[in-house]
Automatic annotation (TrEMBL):
<dbReference type="GO" id="GO:0031901">
    <property type="term" value="C:early endosome membrane"/>
</dbReference>
<dbReference type="InterPro" id="IPR015943">
    <property type="entry name" value="WD40/YVTN_repeat-like_dom_sf"/>
</dbReference>
<keyword id="KW-0967">Endosome</keyword>
<dbReference type="GO" id="GO:0045022">
    <property type="term" value="P:early endosome to late endosome transport"/>
</dbReference>
<dbReference type="InterPro" id="IPR056327">
    <property type="entry name" value="ARMC9_CTLH-like_dom"/>
</dbReference>
<dbReference type="Pfam" id="PF00400">
    <property type="entry name" value="WD40"/>
</dbReference>
<feature type="repeat" description="WD">
    <location>
        <begin position="561"/>
        <end position="602"/>
    </location>
</feature>
<keyword id="KW-0472">Membrane</keyword>
<dbReference type="Pfam" id="PF12894">
    <property type="entry name" value="ANAPC4_WD40"/>
</dbReference>
<dbReference type="Pfam" id="PF23138">
    <property type="entry name" value="CTLH_Armc9"/>
</dbReference>
<feature type="domain" description="ARMC9 CTLH-like">
    <location>
        <begin position="8"/>
        <end position="128"/>
    </location>
</feature>
<dbReference type="GO" id="GO:0141039">
    <property type="term" value="F:phosphatidylinositol 3-kinase inhibitor activity"/>
</dbReference>
<dbReference type="GO" id="GO:0051898">
    <property type="term" value="P:negative regulation of phosphatidylinositol 3-kinase/protein kinase B signal transduction"/>
</dbReference>
<comment type="similarity">
    <text>Belongs to the WD repeat WDR91 family.</text>
</comment>
<feature type="compositionally biased region" description="Polar residues">
    <location>
        <begin position="331"/>
        <end position="341"/>
    </location>
</feature>
<feature type="domain" description="Anaphase-promoting complex subunit 4-like WD40">
    <location>
        <begin position="525"/>
        <end position="574"/>
    </location>
</feature>
<feature type="compositionally biased region" description="Basic and acidic residues">
    <location>
        <begin position="291"/>
        <end position="303"/>
    </location>
</feature>
């Protein structure tokens, strides 16, 4: 079969049929070459280049200069940006190209034979690959693996649910043993002061004793927990019940810590401990010691039955550690509980039992040494491009291992970054001096650099259309802010970044400007841009707080509305593309209906750590402030969950249009500095969340989603 392919290509070359040659090679590329691994892509590109050169040399050797000129006329748009073709455009106009040092090699018989043999060998090896021959077998194997993965997924979530249920039952058993087997005065003996021991020894009335103890515990709670005072209970309750009520749920961990320390003591240690407490009270020393001996015997009998409870608190050495224990347990169980963030006029808290995601792994990329501005995954979900405030660009992969593929340092400051959609090896880089660069991540070099506007040197945002044919560029004038006013930030003031700006459309192939969009009511800096799935719509967020929706077929603004009080920091289309989401300087996260201009679907309040400006405090009052640049939120594959920034890592919220609350279902954590930008890649079966912080660290968290 590969002999036929080779013969067909040679026939097209000899008959000067350029269109058929291009179409046939594209067919082979689509059906065969595209199925190969990435390591074979450079070889395919070199063979394609050599094939077209072979066509040109054959045409000129046979006196068909018209075919050579036709070749460059039709292929100019594709070849003019490729460095390997830069010297070949002069070929049809040379009087003796076979004697020219640049082209003499290609006109030799040896080069032509070498090329034919190389192409023959490549095709012969290619058709022996089982990847090519066994399509059906591979499809069947792939479907079986997917079914097995789905089965294992269900088993994993079932085991997780069973584990959660068993933990809950164990907790209930511990609480039952604690509350019902130990009397209140025994469980809290370590907390009794001298006044309580005096009241016990003097055998005051039960009501008086309970009233005094209640006052002591309520004052203790107000000092340590800062909680509200307890209401007065009826006098009809038993002493044990009343003691349990006064203690409340917030003292549960303290009781366990107290019992844990005493559970490992001998009766002798208990005597000496309590004797030490009352050593200064000589007036009632003998009565107290006698009373303590009775209590020691009773405690030894009771605590011998519940020794297992004391083991968990064995290492707790003081009361302050015991007080802090509930908070640490709450942080450790963030993946098992969820809270609801109130929206406008909404209630505050809710709990979800079933978790939508399981964290499979979390890795750290630490090649940056300054705050991250952008962190984006490419379309294939295999590579990440990250940019920091020092102008350092890193391109790295994470599957199967985390590895840096390319690294570059820009002489001029960089303000924006975007992956090209079709040729996903290319990066668009916007600078602070009015230029946009096209960077080849595989060749590790700049392909071209274009100048946008000297009067508007800040390239704030770049967005490439899904077709890859064009990209939009937002250019803005210099900001009037020369320093950061912390008082303005702390008081919620605006950043005063409303400067003139332009929104331009550029052709990706020719790197020439196509048009400038009209911005009403006047020129303004565009902070963020996003295309819909087919590139027919473009949504932008500006420094004046206005969201503009552009029709990319008519190249005009279809609608606009005032979205935020202050700047719009980030904007994205929803999963169904009937709405757009925005985050603004006012701390609002709002969903808008794009079919009715300015119709608000939902609105939520976000903390400042999720919206910026982001502040990193250091020693001696030093503060580093960064205004939002990259993406502040990202959605999962079905648009039901949203990843946002926080001070310690990413937070995933559930989007529920029926309730006016944001339901937090998972905290990713892992950061020691504020997270300033996020991304969520859904190209793989397991979702990959990226969270980048002000200390230059990037966390890559792999999630397993539970499918309904």
């Amino acid at each position: 079969l590969f002999f036929r392919c080779l013969d067909q290509l040679q026939q097209f070359v000899q008959s000067y049929d350029l269109a058929a040659l291009r179409d046939y090679w594209s067919y082979l590329d689509r059906r065969l070459f595209s199925r190969l691994e990435d390591v074979y892509r450079p070889t395919v590109n070199k063979l394609k280049t050599s094939l077209f050169r072979h066509y040109l040399v054959h045409a000129i050797q046979n006196g068909r200069n018209d075919k050579a000129q036709e070749f460059f006329l039709k292929q100019a748009s594709e070849l003019q940006n490729q460095a390997e073709w830069k010297d070949w455009f002069v070929l049809p106009f040379l009087p003796a190209p076979d004697s020219n040092p640049t082209f003499a090699t290609y006109f030799s018989r040896q080069w032509a034979d070498t090329f034919i043999v190389s192409l023959h060998n490549f095709l012969s090896v290619l058709f022996q690959f089982p990847v090519i021959l066994n399509f059906e077998a591979e499809c069947l194997r792939s479907s079986l693996i997917q079914e097995e993965n789905e089965s294992l997924r269900h088993k994993l979530f079932a085991l997780q649910a069973e584990s959660s249920r068993m933990k809950k039952e164990e907790l209930e058993v511990e609480q039952t043993v604690m509350h019902h087997k130990l009397p209140a005065y025994v469980a809290n003996m370590d907390r009794l002061g001298d006044s309580e021991l005096d009241m016990t020894c003097n055998q005051r009335s039960t009501a008086h004793s309970l009233q005094s103890r209640g006052g002591f515990l309520s004052s203790f709670l107000s000092q340590s927990k800062k909680g509200p005072s307890r209401p007065t209970h009826s006098s009809g309750a038993s002493p044990t019940q009343t003691g349990s009520i006064l203690l409340g749920k917030k003292e549960t961990t303290n009781h366990q810590s107290a019992k844990g320390k005493e559970g490992t003591m001998s009766c002798k240690d208990g005597k000496s401990h309590f004797s030490g407490l009352v050593a200064g009270e000589s007036s009632s020393l003998q009565q107290r010691q006698k009373r303590l001996q009775e209590h020691g015997k009773e405690r030894k009998e009771l605590l011998s039955k519940g020794t297992f409870q004391g083991q968990s608190a064995e290492k707790k050495t003081d009361t302050s550690t015991a007080e802090a224990e509930p908070c640490s347990e709450l942080n450790a169980e963030q993946t098992e509980t969820s809270t609801k963030m109130p929206g406008s006029g909404a209630e505050a808290v809710g709990v979800r039992q079933e978790q939508p995601f399981i964290v499979l792994s979390q890795e750290e990329y630490g090649e940056h040494h300054s705050s991250i501005m952008y962190c984006r995954v490419d379309c294939s979900g295999r590579r990440v491009a990250s940019l920091d405030v020092d102008g350092v660009i890193k391109v790295w992969s994470f599957n199967p291992i985390m590895q840096t593929k390319a690294s570059s340092i820009s002489k001029s400051p960089l303000l924006s970054l975007e992956w090209a959609t079709k040729r996903d090896r290319l990066l668009l880089l916007g600078s602070g001096v009015g230029t946009v660069r096209l960077y080849d991540t595989e060749a590790k070099k700049n392909l071209c650099e274009i100048s946008i506007d000297e009067d508007m040197p800040r390239i704030l945002s770049l967005a490439c259309s899904p077709s890859g044919a064009s990209f939009v560029c937002s250019a803005a004038a210099q900001s009037p802010i020369s320093h950061i006013d912390f008082s303005v930030i702390n008081s919620g003031g605006k950043s005063m970044n409303q400067v003139p700006g332009k929104l331009l459309l550029w052709d990706t192939k020719t790197m020439k400007q196509q048009l400038q969009f009209s911005l009403e009511p006047g020129p303004i800096a565009i902070n963020c841009t996003a295309f819909n799935h087919n590139g027919n719509l473009l949504v932008t967020g500006a420094a004046d707080g206005i969201v503009r929706l552009f029709d990319m077929q008519q190249h005009e603004c279809a609608m606009s509305w005032k979205a935020h009080d202050g700047e719009v920091y980030s904007v994205e289309f929803s999963y169904d593309e009937n709405t757009v989401y925005t985050i603004g300087e006012d701390g609002k996260f709002i969903q808008w209906n794009i079919h009715k201009s300015g119709l608000k679907v939902s609105e939520y309040d976000l903390p400042r750590e999720a919206t910026g400006p982001f502040v990193l405090s250091g020693y001696s009052g030093y503060k580093q402030v960064q205004f939002p640049r990259g993406r502040l939120f990202a959605f999962d594959s079905e648009g039901n969950y949203m990843l946002t920034c926080s001070s310690t890592g990413g937070v995933i919220f559930k989007l529920n249009g029926e309730e006016k609350v944001l339901e937090s279902c998972l905290s990713l954590g892992g950061h020691r500095a504020p997270v300033v930008t996020v991304d969520w890649s859904t190209a793989m079966d397991c979702g990959t969340c990226l969270t980048a912080s002000m200390d230059g660290k990037i966390k890559l968290t792999t999630l397993l989603a539970q499918k309904s």
